[in-house]
Design goal:
The protein has eleven helices and ten strands. The chain is an alpha/beta fold and 300 residues long. It folds into two domains: 245 residues, P-loop containing nucleotide triphosphate hydrolases (Rossmann fold, 3-Layer(aba) Sandwich), CATH 3.40.50; 46 residues, no CATH class. The strands form two sheets. The chain has a six-stranded mixed beta sheet, sandwiched between helices. Strand 7, helix 6 and strand 8 form a beta-alpha-beta unit. Helix 3 runs parallel beside helix 5 and helix 10 packs parallel to helix 11. The termini are far apart.
């Protein structure tokens, strides 16, 4: 497992009497090399959960196992700097954290802080830019003169430049146009499949990720309400409403199509293209069956 949480709770507290438990008894497993989606209504504990993955927050109860590092509530934590290089955390609107006058300097910042030479950092920057589908000529540009989509990709490249085993992204498609959103999700899936990275994406646009994610974790009121595959989620979409989430359009379409054509026993299809092909196939099958019946009647 890339990440394993056992009975993990987290409580925010200050020196006054104020306390708020954000997570309650979470048991969560995320496989190495998988693409995992995390969803939940506002205040469900998503952001708190992400910060446990690289030690920004430490559990107040339970154990967090990330790769070969174990963090247990009430015990002295191991050195977390190496873990933070292996677990790249991309916050929502990561471009707001860019501050250098060139894209290259911004992407090199992380590797240089982790002890890489300038030439090594530049090589990592070039590879990360390529991984994100960006023209290397942009390295010399001011990051604030890039398009919104380019800036978002460059910000993610600054995390990839540290070559993390796990990449955790909080709403990576927020504010992007539909074309840029689809392109970014496709790039992240490719990083997962081709490079074997573990990719974890928090999203409220489940439609974008549903066809690609290997597994989902849904949070409700700081508790884990669901963990399973998209196919399992499609079999019981009402769980989304119970978690305060909107049922994705692709699931609504599948429900309508499976009811209309009697496909309830089949594996759910979660893309418009797959649904269209299946509907066309069903109509063709029915047309052929009707033709066969008419031919049989004509011989009687």
């Amino acid at each position: 497992m890339a990440i394993q949480l056992q009975q993990v709770s987290y409580t925010y507290a200050d020196r006054s009497m104020w306390r708020q438990t954000a997570l309650h008894g979470i048991n969560l497993n995320i496989a190495k090399g998988s693409l995992t989606g995390i969803a939940g209504a506002t205040g469900s504990g998503k952001s708190t959960l992400l910060q446990l993955f690289n030690g920004i927050l430490k559990p107040t109860e339970g154990t967090v196992q990330v790769l070969d590092v174990t963090i247990t509530a009430g015990e002295k934590s191991p050195k977390l700097l190496p873990l933070r290089r292996r677990v790249g955390l991309v916050f929502q609107f990561p471009e707001q954290q860019m501050f250098e006058d060139t894209v290259e300097k911004d992407i090199c910042f992380g590797p240089l802080n982790f002890g890489f030479t300038l030439e090594e950092a530049k090589e990592r920057a070039r590879k990360a830019m390529t991984d994100m589908g960006l023209d290397l000529a942009l390295l010399e540009r001011n990051p604030f003169r890039l398009s919104g989509g380019q800036m978002r990709k460059a910000a993610i490249a600054s995390v990839l430049a540290m070559d993390p085993d796990i990449v955790v992204l909080d709403e990576p498609t927020a504010t992007l146009d539909p074309v840029s959103r689809a392109e970014l999700i496709a790039l992240l899936e490719r990083l997962c499949r081709e490079q074997g990275r573990t990719i974890i994406i928090v999203t409220h646009r489940m439609d974008e990720l549903l066809p690609y994610a290997d597994s989902w974790a849904l949070l409700k009121g700081g508790e884990l309400a669901f963990q399973g595959s998209g196919q399992e989620l499609a079999a019981d979409p009402a769980i989304l409403e119970r978690c305060g989430l909107t049922i994705p359009q692709s699931l609504r379409y599948w429900q309508a199509v499976s009811t209309r054509f009697g496909l309830g026993t089949e594996k759910p299809l979660l893309t418009a293209e797959a649904l269209a092909e299946r509907i066309a196939a069903v109509l063709e099958e029915r047309k052929n069956a009707a033709g066969t019946e008419e031919m049989g009647s004509g011989h009687e």
